[in-house]
Amino acid sequence: MSERQIQLEVLRYNPETDSAPRFQTYEVPCLNEWVVLDALNYVKDHLDPTVSYRWSCHMAVCGSCGMMVNGEPKLACKAFIHEYGDQIRVEPLANFPIERDLVTVVDDFIGKLASVKPYLIPKEDKPVSAGEYKQSPAELKTFKQYTLCINCMLCYAACPQYGLVPDFIGPAAISLAHRYNQDSRDGGREQRQEVIASHDGVWECSFVGACSEVCPKHVDPASALQQVKVASTIDWYKEHLMPWMKK
Amino acid sequence: MSRKPYIREMSKTNWFFSQPRYMRYMAREVTCIFILAYTILLIFALKNLADGPEAYAGFLQALNSPLGILFNLAALVGAVYHSTSWFNVTPQAMPIQRGEEFLPGNVIVGAHYGGWALISLIVLFLGV
Amino acid sequence: MEIIKTDVAIVGAGGAGLRAAIALAEADPKLRIALVSKVYPMRSHTCAAEGGAAGVIKSDDSLDLHFNDTVGGGDWLCDQDAVEYFINEAPKELIQLEHWGCPWSREPDGAVAVRPFGGMKIKRTWFAADKSGFHILHTLFQTSLKYPSIQRFDEYYATDLLVDDGRCQGFTALEIRSGEMRQFQAGAVIIAAGGAGRMFPFTTNGAVKTGDGMALAYRAGAPLKDMEFVQYHPTGLPNNGILLTEGCRGEGGILLNKDGRRYLQDYGMGPETPVGQPVLKTMELGPRDRLSQSFWHEQQKGNTVSTRWGDCVLLDMRHLGEKKINERLPLVRDLCISYLGMDPVKEPIPIRPVVHYCMGGIHTNVEAATPLPGLFAAGECACVSINGANRLGSNSLTELLVFGRRAALSAIAHLQSGQSAGNDAALAAQAQDSEKRIQALFDKSGGTESIAGLRQEMMDTMEAGAGIYRTGEGLAATCDKIAELRQRFAGIALHDKSRIFNTDLMQALELGSMLDCAEAAAVGGRDRQESRGAHQRLDFTARDDQKFLKHSLAHYHPKEPPRIEYLDVVITKSQPGVRDYSGAKK
Questions:
Q1: How distant is the Cα of C437 from the closest Cα of chain B, in angstroms?
Q2: Which terminus of chain B has fewer CB atoms gathered within 10 Å of its CB, N or C?
Q3: How many CB atoms are located within 10 Å of the residue C60 CB?
């Protein structure tokens, strides 16, 4: 069955015994159609049960298995062996502390996600008995793309701004805020602006665009952030140059 | 034993060498210096113009020197790179939705190039 | 050991767990809610559901029709009081999700759109393209962030329920990242920890679906119900079991054998319908059990296509066209291209049946209550039972909403019924025992068995004996094998002795859960000498309502195989009849 032998270099870190991470190399017999996650699972099941990493769905939707593959943020379940040479190096996602081996500490992201109020704040409350809000396919399409984020955090690993300024709220969280801002049913933009239009919000973004390049679901967070900047700038001009325009 | 998360610091000074996409980003940002430099040059030109025909002729002559031509060429290349790299990302910053569909990105980028060409033509005619 | 005192503690933060948590927080902001999950909520397997969620909303539909489809689809093993509650609540729950922002696909006039689904007589499946479960999960997770009273404990693995004074009063859980044990004390516990599809080798289920919640309740004395009913989804990618939604067929995709024949017409689901004009409840829109069984017959006849991943049939969607596929089935296209290198716009996709869903689970009544006071369950880990012997596609996403909420309401009622204060010393002693059990795994060295090895043997025997078609002999062999594996499980030792994020330990605990679930499924199947829904016996080919119009209840024994009891099915208005998926009358 084996079609290829690869050397899988895995960054190992056991906080109980190691002072710093180190690489460990495994010889893995692979099928060409495998993804990097399959190779890791082979290591776990056959070579070394002590390797730790997160994974679940194996179909690029649960967002668990983000890691650096040859220096690039990838979902291990969507990084195909046939796209790499015989040496593949996996490391935990950049810009996050390493808990253990390929497992990172993601508390910071989870906190930021919650901080942007990523839930519908309805324009007008409506009881369930009154049925659904109407929303045209065009209105849906306005924000649909930004609903596709799987919270895999590859964008945070790609973003040099987040690496340099850890307080930056970051691509995925701001995109999610933008998703609700753009939803025809929502009226919560002003509440979210306090967080996302702040100094640690969009203005920390310098439009490197790396987030959009690595996003496995084509959410294009960079686009969301630039749109928030444009809208916030328009807000500022309205407020300062045309105060009478303010509601 | 307890947790001991390991933090990998990002280099503050040379992080942009770590990936080609970061270098491309830096190239886009750094080329704005040429735009700035050329703007200063234009202001300088205005000053010379205000100082009278002789001063202006001297200024033009200085521009005709090899150094002046080199500077102009470098400024042109830098400005073109800077402008095009920004034009190419405008669809992300300003998506336009018509009905259900979004305008294709190349239409938005194309409109920027069109505008650029138009303004250049106008400047050219004004100059003639 | 740190004690966390809560009013209601929930194990599992997928669709059902989140829905329960929100219902609790909305009912009373003062309730202390602990939402405990072995993964971050958005990693839960609800995210992988694709097709949609069923609920009556359109004027041409009726609650009775949804009731009949569900009960017939379940081969009359559904509890009809539960089904009735379910179909009544379904539309409300789906509208509620819409109000929380779920990006349901829409009609041109802005109303929510519905699509056809297998075994449903009317289009009633709400969908968000082909990422319905993903959007439901994220909508629930994001909405849950509104409520400060929901305290999340992400990446905590629940190890044992604490049962004292005849009622469930909490559980112990391991904080995975520190390896430290915590004691959760709770007035009521809700288990919403998903199914156990990982006990099979070829499954759509993610790695997390290891039956932990089922085993947690089972070991504490709550029986598992109808575990022998395991659903094969007819359309999985042949190389890795990735699900291609029933929506593929709902939108008009057809199934072909190696001769290009739409073979379903040969298995009581004909006559052939025009390509691209699917007719509800017939041919490709038959129920999943029938479709998966038809595949098996085609394979026996040699009508399947040989691929390097084994025998397949073909799912042809080419006639739908690129635009419709991109709009309605974008994920399906992406999955086919990425993982198989084939584009459904251009070529038929080889597929084969794949283990997808456990109809069985923790025995609950219509109130989502288990027989153990204070313990409630909802979602795939529970068996209430609305799915009977075969779940209809798109009922499970709705189920986790309806019964997630119901479990919350029942838990509140339980709190209000007034319980005497718990005996802290007794609970602490149980928690210590649980900790010792884990510690023993660390202390032991030189184990004779490997976790991955035992897991592989378990999966192999489940596939061999408890697959689409079963025999008494095969099931008996599987029962013996699982019993042997449970014994050998005592011989495992951890290779990884670290306390920090020890996935070797997690896999050991998960294997223990799966073995318990697998044994209940195999023994239940061996003893059910009839064919019904997803449980098909080659030695008992007919449904036997005389003997087996009954739920099986498996009761746990630490060393022996489970004791099986039977419980009457609740029948209110639909007497068992013939499941007719032929198109003749339609």
A1: 19
A2: C
A3: 9
Rg (C-alpha) for chain C, rounded Å, is: 23
pLDDT in tens, A55-112: 999 999 999 999 999 999 999 999 999 999 999 999 999 999 999 999 999 999 999 9
Which residues of C fall within a CB distance of 8 Å from A45? 452
CA angle (C223, C228, C234) in 5-degree steps: 135
For residue A246, pLDDT beyond 80 = no
Same domain, B74 and B22: yes
Average pLDDT, chain C: 96
Question: Could you tell me where the beta strands, DSSP code E, fall in A76-132?
Answer: 87-92, 98-100, 103-104
**Which residues of C are part of the catalytic machinery?**
233, 249
Give the span between the Cα atoms of C372 and C167, in whole angstroms. 6
Whether omega for the bond prior to residue C385 falls within 30 degrees of 0, making it cis, is: yes
**Partners of residue B1 in chain C, C-beta under 8 Å:** 498-500
What topology is assigned to A4-104 in CATH?
Ubiquitin-like (UB roll) (3.10.20)
Q: C15-27 and C395-416 helices cross at what angle (nearest 10)?
A: 40
Cα A247 → chain centroid: 36
Q: What is the pTM of this model?
A: 0.97
Q: Where are the alpha helices (DSSP H) in chain A?
A: 36-42, 107-115, 137-144, 154-158, 160-164, 171-181, 189-196, 210-214, 221-241
Beta bridge partners, C35, equal C10, C152
Of C45, C495, C500, the CB nearest to A15: C500
Q: What is the mean pLDDT of residues B49-67?
A: 91
> Quick one: pLDDT band at residue C584, thresholds 50, 70, 90?
low
For residues C308 and C240, give the distance between their C-alpha atoms in angstroms, rounded to a whole number. 12
- Residue C86: phi and psi, rounded to 5, are -60, -50
Among residues C9, C36, C115, C38, the alpha carbon closest in space to that of C505 is found at C38
Considering the domain architecture, whether residues B65 and B48 belong to the same structural domain is answered as: yes
Of B16, B25, B92, the CB nearest to A226: B92
Task: Let me know if domain A107-245 sits in CATH 1.10.1060.10.
Answer: yes
Helices (H) and strands (E) in chain C, counts: 15, 22
Q: At what angle do helices B53-64 and B66-87 cross, to 10 degrees?
A: 80
Give residue B116's domain range: 88-128
**Chain B interface residues (partner C, CB cutoff 8 A):** 1-4
Alpha helices, DSSP H, located in C54-100: 63-73, 80-99
Complex-level ipTM: 0.97
> Per-residue confidence at A243, pLDDT binned at 50, 70, 90?
confident
Contact residues for C217 (Cβ-Cβ < 8 A; gap 6+): C161, C191, C224, C362, C370, C372, C375, C377, C381
Per residue in A182-229, pLDDT (tens digit) is 999 999 999 999 999 999 999 999 999 999 999 999 999 999 999 999
Evaluate whether residue C13 is within a structural domain: no
Partners of residue A180 in chain C, C-beta under 8 Å? 101
Residues C495 and C92: their CA atoms lie apart, in Å, by 50
Nearest by CB to residue B89, choosing from A98, A137, A209, is A209
Torsion of CA A37, A43, A48, A52, to 10 degrees: 0
**Mean pLDDT over each residue of chain A, to the nearest integer:** 96
User: What percent of chain A has pLDDT above 90?
Assistant: 93
Quote the DSSP letter at residue C80.
Answer: H
The answer to whether A143 and A204 have CB atoms below 8 angstroms apart is no
pLDDT value, residue A10: 98
Domain extent, residue C241, equals 232-354
Q: How far apart are CA C142 and CA C412, in angstroms?
A: 23
pLDDT at C132 over 60: yes
Interval C236-291: pLDDT, tens: 999 999 999 999 999 999 999 999 999 999 999 989 999 989 999 999 999 999 99
Distance to chain A for B1, nearest Cα, Å:
6
